[in-house]
Design a protein that fits this description.
GO terms for molecular function: ATP binding; ATP hydrolysis activity; branched-chain amino acid transmembrane transporter activity. The chain has 236 residues and is α/β, with parallel strands linked by helices. 40% of the residues lie in helices and 27% in strands. It has a domain of 165 residues: Rossmann fold (3-Layer(aba) Sandwich). α3 packs parallel to α6. The radius of gyration is 17 Å and the shape is globular. The model has no long low-confidence stretch (mean pLDDT 91).
């Protein structure tokens, strides 16, 4: 299984946000899509998860097109999109938020097992089960958002800016959790991040976007070590 994007073009209103973007992500790999604010990263991810329409080009997972599909249909086929921690429902408890993903799954035993695995991965959630999600810290909300998606047993996880607004220590913890997930579950992850260095440190490969176009695709380590790429696009 792999994610294959070819010549994808996306408009955001009157602006061409993504222009002829192509890349592949193999099964069990973590790809970091990085670039400055306004590079088109979130627009790209929203299109891959069914939240936005494309103008032209193709995107497929396991040989099946994923464009113009409803997000809930993609979720049922194993593709989950996690926006930043604001996506949790503040008025519901941690337990109720986690339960939402399992509502449409028939195998309730596995839902319980997946929930237990999420608590093992993020122990703090186990201590907060009865607490309203709106009262959690930013890092805890992000863990809840990721944890909730895992209960669907996804094969492809699309993560949008999981480090946004979090303290450096929490960012490190979130990134490490994502890396562990890939290994433990053989997940394929597309991680969109402005925190280029943090993302590349845990990724297998990096895709650098600038003004809607791919300007570099290489192993994460190669991009980290390339002074020209670092100076021009990564800001360090």
């Amino acid at each position: 299984m792999s994610l294959v994007v070819e010549n994808l073009t996306i408009d955001h209103g009157a602006i061409r946000a993504i222009s002829n973007v192509s890349f592949k992500v193999a099964e069990g790999q973590l790809a970091a899509i990085i670039g400055a604010n306004g590079a088109g990263k979130t627009t790209l991810l929203r299109t891959l998860s069914g939240l936005k329409e494309s103008v032209s080009g193709t995107a497929s997972w396991n040989g099946q097109s994923i464009l113009e599909k409803k997000p809930e249909d993609l979720a049922r086929s194993g593709i989950m999109h996690v926006s930043d921690g604001k996506s949790v429902i503040a008025e519901l408890s941690v337990k109720e938020n986690l339960a939402l993903t399992g509502l449409w799954r028939k195998d309730k035993k596995d839902v319980a097992a997946a929930t237990a695995e999420v608590v093992e991965l993020f122990p703090i959630l186990g201590q907060r089960m009865g607490q309203m999600a709106g009262s959690l810290s930013g890092g805890e909300r992000q863990m809840l958002a990721i944890g909730r998606s895992l209960i669907a047993r996804p094969k492809l996880l699309l993560l949008d800016e999981p480090s946004l607004g979090l303290a450096p220590l929490i960012v490190e913890q979130i990134f490490q959790s994502i890396k562990d997930l890939v290994k433990r579950l053989n997940l394929t992850v597309v991680l969109v991040e402005q925190n280029a260095m943090g993302a590349l440190k845990i990724a297998n490969e990096g895709i650098v976007l600038s003004l809607g176009s791919v300007v570099a695709v290489d192993s994460a380590q190669t991009l980290l070590n390339d002074p020209a790429v670092r100076t021009a696009y990564l800001g360090f």
